[in-house]
Amino acid sequence: MELFLNATSPYARLVRIVVLEKGLADAVKLRWCDPWSDDAQLLEANPAGRIPALITEDGTALSESLVIALYLDGMGRSEPIIPASRLSEVLRQAGLGQSLMDAAFGTVIGRKHQGKEVDDTVLGRRRWRAIHRILDRLENEISADPVSPSMTLGEISIAVALDYLSFRLTETNWPERHEKLKAWHQHVTKKESFAQTAFL
Ligand SMILES: N[C@@H](CCC(=O)N[C@@H](CS)C(=O)NCC(=O)O)C(=O)O
């Protein structure tokens, strides 16, 4: 399999962590690229021009991080990252993590192309309100310790989104404002798969 990625995308990092957690590192070749440079092979794999994209063993090109995570969960012999017994809880967390990533990434990319003033537009303010609401909700909902020793897709998604805030939007100061979430995040990100994929 081949995974198109870069070192700063939260969506690509989520998939990379899934690859490691599922014990599939040897089966997935990393194909580093710049999604903003219209890389011809990436466009062939994903006409949207976005990473991550995964070419499966049978040559199928998959896009969208959660879709790729779902595919990888069906492979490898490790514990499922979407356990059937906790389906709704894990998918709820995955959705919240993904929404946090979307609002944060939208803010970062908006600033890059239109300047920081974009934060004061209708859409910019809306994204910031979403970021704060999601953080508050996670602070209220997250249980102190993860339920199982193996990671779930929900935990990976939320933890990567929080790391992305610390990487790109430090002004959120989320660890100072959300103590329970901070402790949870410290616990979850102790895993080797997080260390190996740190944002650069
Ligand atoms: N919903 C998508 C989002 C993917 C995405 O936006 N990736 C960014 C990098 S972080 C990208 O490739 N952007 C290039 C572009 O939008 O042209 C997913 O979950 O995979």
UniProtKB/TrEMBL annotation:
<dbReference type="Pfam" id="PF13409">
    <property type="entry name" value="GST_N_2"/>
</dbReference>
<dbReference type="Pfam" id="PF13410">
    <property type="entry name" value="GST_C_2"/>
</dbReference>
<dbReference type="InterPro" id="IPR050983">
    <property type="entry name" value="GST_Omega/HSP26"/>
</dbReference>
<feature type="domain" description="GST N-terminal">
    <location>
        <begin position="1"/>
        <end position="80"/>
    </location>
</feature>
<keyword id="KW-0808">Transferase</keyword>
<dbReference type="GO" id="GO:0005737">
    <property type="term" value="C:cytoplasm"/>
</dbReference>
<dbReference type="GO" id="GO:0016740">
    <property type="term" value="F:transferase activity"/>
</dbReference>
<dbReference type="InterPro" id="IPR036249">
    <property type="entry name" value="Thioredoxin-like_sf"/>
</dbReference>
<protein>
    <submittedName>
        <fullName>Glutathione S-transferase</fullName>
    </submittedName>
</protein>
<dbReference type="InterPro" id="IPR004045">
    <property type="entry name" value="Glutathione_S-Trfase_N"/>
</dbReference>
<dbReference type="InterPro" id="IPR036282">
    <property type="entry name" value="Glutathione-S-Trfase_C_sf"/>
</dbReference>
